[in-house]
Every structure is written in C-alpha cells, then in structure tokens.
Design brief:
Elements: H1 3-9, H2 23-33, H3 38-45, H4 49-56, H5 67-80, H6 83-96, E1 98-109, E2 115-126, H7 129-140, H8 144-160, E3 171-184
C-alpha cells in the first residue's frame, strides 16, 4: 500500500487528469511527446527502433509486449504528464513548505557499527525546503521507496541531527509506517 503517495496526493495536486489507461493510449501519448521520432521512443522504452515502428504501424499489439516494456511505458508517460501542473505544485509546495505528522519505526546506526533497534516514534516536523522539489518529482513518478527515503532524510535532519555534535552524521532509518499525514505549512 502506498501510504506516502496517498498522503501527498491528498495535498499536492500534480495532475488534473489521469494518464491514458490503455497501453495503446500511453504509447500514442509518448509518440506525440516525441513528435513521432521512433528512435527517441525506442531509447526511452529500451527497445529497438524497428519494434517501435511495428507498434506504430499496428503490426504488433503493444498490449502483448513484455511486462518490463509496459512498466517502462507507464513510467515514461507519467514522467511527461502535465508538466505545467507539476511545476505549479512544486512552486506552491516550496513556497508554503511541507509538515509531516507520522508514527513510524525509526532506527539508528552508531559510529562503531553497532545499531540501535528500530522503534515506533510519533513525530511531527517540517520537511527541509531543499528536499521538497525531489519529493514532488518522486510523487509524480509514484515512487513510494524514493518518497520514504526523502521524507526519512527530512525528518532525520530536523529531529535527530544536531549541528556541531556527533549526532550531525547520524544514520537514521525510517521504516514501517503506521500512519502518515502531510500538510502544507
């Protein structure tokens, strides 16, 4: 379940309409984006130019492509989908800031290689502004793992790492999320 993606989508509007639902619709959207250049489409999908030409001529059904190709197609179309809306969302999030309220497992890795066992903590902190742009991009890609990494880094910077102390370089793990709410500041 994508808890972070859902929490962010409820606040940050990165799109006003969904990407095309069918593989053919997604392929056509990517072809339009690249203005019919089969070489660029082939490069983005990781397949041969000839295969893209066959798909464009409808000699082959895109739906019968390998699962990796279909996943890459969705990823590429999502990356290009509504860039102005995404830019507006990024600008607003950077301007207003993001505030995270969560209950999740946090653990630490000490300097000597020993680890502190992860435990659940309640935490409410602002996300540092330098991470917000990356968070919006990861949300656009619906990359839950990247979002967890970025939000974990932000919470670690704000809560655990104290400048000028040994804790400044503390390696913090952000694990199992019980709940998470994200608001604009």
């Amino acid at each position: 379940m994508k808890k972070i993606v859902e929490a962010l989508k409820s606040k940050i509007k990165i799109q006003t309409r969904d990407i095309p639902k069918t593989a053919r619709g997604r392929f056509n959207a990517l072809m339009r984006k690249e203005r019919g250049d089969t070489g660029k489409v082939a490069e983005r999908l990781g397949i041969s130019r000839r295969q893209v030409q066959r798909l464009a001529k409808r000699d082959h059904k895109i739906e019968n492509s390998k699962p990796e190709t279909l996943a890459r197609l969705e990823e590429e179309v999502r990356r290009d989908h509504q860039p102005r809306i995404r830019a507006q969302a990024r600008k607003e999030a950077e301007k207003r800031g993001l505030y995270v309220d969560t209950r999740a497992q946090f653990g630490f890795e000490a300097a000597g290689g020993s680890t502190d066992d992860a435990r659940y903590r309640l935490m409410s902190e602002d996300i540092p502004s330098h991470l917000i742009g990356d968070i919006v991009e990861a949300l656009a890609a619906e990359d839950e793992d990247r979002l967890q990494e970025l939000i974990g880094e932000g919470l670690a910077e704000e809560y655990f790492r104290t400048p000028g102390t040994e804790a400044e370089s503390l390696a913090v793990t952000f694990g199992d999320i019980d709940y998470i709410e994200i608001e604009y500041r």
